[in-house]
Specification:
The protein is mainly beta and about 450 residues long. It has helices at about 25, 35, 300-305, 315-320, 330-345, 350-360, 375-380, and strands at about 1-5, 10-15, 50-55, 60-65, 70-75, 85-90, 95-100, 105, 140, 145-150, 180, 185, 220, 225, 245-255, 260-265, 270-275, 295, 310, 325-330, 365, 370, 395-400, 405, 410-415, 425-430, 435, 445, 450. Among the domains are: about 1-100, no CATH class; about 245-450, no CATH class.
């Protein structure tokens, strides 16, 4: 044993002696810390946490937890949804399977040469492969489609394409909710209205919260199927039979009391005039006072844009019907039905879609008269409904000269709504939008008639 005083520089040998115990002072300078007392883990963390290496020490993490018999892998609160929560890589470091916030992705090699198990496969418990050429294909995944093929022979407890329980037996009394035939697939769905958080045939979120009020965009009834909103196909769409959209379907022409002929069109369950009203008489033959409507002195302009009517021609004020017999000026509910049919339940949040479908594209119609001012919004419309809105604009009553001022055309289409409170539909050719507005006093505008139910 060597010893020295703090004031000395040389050690003095005290001889050799067996150490029976280690004095505390020898270890006092390197006593166990709280971390080393936990086997090197900085803290215990929460119940079920797993420890991982930080490169310096061991630390608990809630991202991997063991609760009872369940292993839970969860992301941090600020997790980037573009990055996987959980990933499996191959020996080359390539991601084979990744779990994201909203789904699971499998990356499958395009090579046809595989090992005992390769690509995306369901195999047995051994590493052997059967003769591929002599083995039937039950699931085939191609870049443009996925195909399931089923053996029609008897099945075991679980066979074919099935979702089963954890037991090895089958229920003796089952209901078929999806049946696949060689030429069709049939879904049988319970007709009861009460559902759980996720029930029936549904795509749900990641929570088990109860359902809130929903809008139906796809409805299946015993005799028909409805798709509300837009259907888009990025490849071929095959339909066996007839597809009826009831949008933009021509109906028989209509004649008013002045024998003027109008085109009509069916949009959903409604039939509309496809032109602006041009009559000078009520449906009973009574002439309309010139103070209540304006007609251009240029006949071709009237053909293109129609006449302009003040709210005084409405039945609630005049007691008469300005539209042909069997037709009427649409109320607010009928206009909203039209806009919902073509723009969806939330049409007002993005009315550009409805605008494109009911506006006639910019064009020269008669004698060089253009239906719109050439703004970008009206150049690229589709008018797929056949409603054919034109920028007729509006006119106002001059109280000084007691006459109607010439209308300013091309920018907007205004349509009178049959309402006790003055309302109009404003189709704005500059912004490409559709709104329900309140017109100014003394304003006259276009009328579109709708057929009585």
């Amino acid at each position: 044993m060597l010893v020295k005083r703090t004031t000395e520089t040389e050690f003095i040998s005290m001889g050799t002696s067996q150490i029976v115990s280690v004095p505390y002072a020898f270890l006092a300078d390197s006593a166990l810390t709280a971390a080393s007392a936990l086997n090197g883990i900085s803290s215990l963390g929460s119940l079920g946490n797993i420890a991982y290496s930080t490169g310096i020490a061991w630390a608990p993490t809630a991202q991997v937890s063991v609760m009872d018999s369940t292993v839970i892998v969860s992301p941090k609160p600020d997790h980037d949804p573009e990055k996987p929560i959980f990933a499996v890589t191959n020996s080359q470091g390539q991601v084979v399977m990744a779990v994201y916030e909203t789904g699971v992705r499998f990356n499958v090699e395009g090579s046809s040469t595989k090992g005992a198990k390769g690509g995306f496969a369901v195999g047995g418990l051994t590493n052997g492969k059967a003769d591929v050429l002599g083995t039937p294909t039950y699931f085939q995944l191609e870049p443009t489609y996925a195909q399931f093929l089923f053996d029609q022979t008897a099945k075991g407890a679980k066979g074919g394409f099935a979702v089963g329980g954890l037991g090895g037996t089958k229920l003796s009394d089952t209901l078929n909710y999806m049946i696949i035939h060689p030429d069709s697939i049939r879904f049988a769905i319970s007709s009861t209205l009460t559902k759980g958080a996720k029930g029936g045939f549904a795509v749900g979120g990641l929570t088990n919260a109860v359902k809130s009020t929903a809008n139906n965009y796809f409805e299946v009834t015993p005799d028909s199927t409805y798709v509300v909103n837009t259907m888009v196909s990025y490849s071929d769409m095959m339909v066996m039979g007839t597809v009826t959209t009831n949008v933009g379907v021509p109906e028989p022409p209509l004649a008013d009391i002045d024998s003027i002929i109008y085109n009509t069109v069916r949009i959903g369950n409604q039939v509309w005039m496809a032109e602006n009203l041009r009559t000078s008489k009520y449906s009973d033959g009574t002439p309309i006072d010139s103070m209540h409507f304006y007609s251009s002195s240029y006949p071709d302009s009237t053909v293109v844009f129609g006449n302009y009517y003040s709210d005084s021609v409405l039945a609630i004020y005049s007691g008469k019907n300005v539209c042909p017999l069997g037709w009427h000026v649409p109320n607010i509910d009928e206009w909203l039905t039209l806009l919902t049919e073509i723009g969806g339940i939330d049409w007002s949040l993005n009315s550009t879609l409805a605008f494109k479908k009911i506006v006639e594209p910019y064009d020269s119609l008669i004698s060089g008269i253009y239906n719109w001012t050439p703004n970008q919004a009206v150049i690229y419309t589709t008018n797929e409904t056949g409603f054919s809105a034109r920028g007729a604009g509006s006119t106002s009553w001059d109280i000084l000269y007691l006459k109607w001022l010439p209308p300013f055309t091309g920018g907007n289409a205004y349509f009178l709504i049959n309402s006790a409170t003055l309302q109009m539909v404003n189709i704005d050719g500059y912004s490409g939008s559709v709104t329900i507005d309140e017109p100014g006093s003394g304003m006259a505008m276009s009328i579109r008639c709708i057929r009585d139910n």
